[in-house]
């Protein structure tokens, strides 16, 4: 089964693994941006952007 563009890691809705990956990507990107780049990791970057657009993430963004 190949993942669809709107799918998350395991289901059609975000689960703990998706949230963890999204936050880890954002933290790592902020910490070492010259090493962790979109070119090197496009899938985690895309997942993180999808997560960041969710109302729950928007409610807690600084």
Report what the structure shows.
- This protein is mainly α.
- The chain starts with 15 loop residues before the first helix and ends with a helix.
- The model has no long low-confidence stretch (mean pLDDT 87).
- The protein has three helices and no strands.
- 53% of the residues lie in helices and 0% in strands.
- The protein is globular.
Summarize, please:
The protein has 62 residues and is mainly alpha-helical. The chain contains 3 helices and no strands.
Principal-axis shape: globular
Indicate the low-confidence ranges by residue numbers: none
Number of strands: 0
What is the alpha-carbon Rg in Å? Answer: 12 Å
SSE order, one letter for each helix or strand? HHH
Strand content: under 5%
**What proportion of the residues is helical, as a percent range?**
40-55%
Overall pLDDT confidence: 87
Largest sheet: none
The number of distinct helices, counting runs of at least 4 residues, comes to 3
Q: Could you tell me how far the N terminus lies from the C terminus, measured between alpha carbons in angstroms?
A: 37 Å
Structural class: mainly alpha
List the topology elements.
Blueprint (H helix, E strand, L loop, with lengths): L15 H16 L10 H11 L2 H6 L2
Helix pairs in contact: 1-2
Brief descriptors of the model:
62 residues; mainly alpha
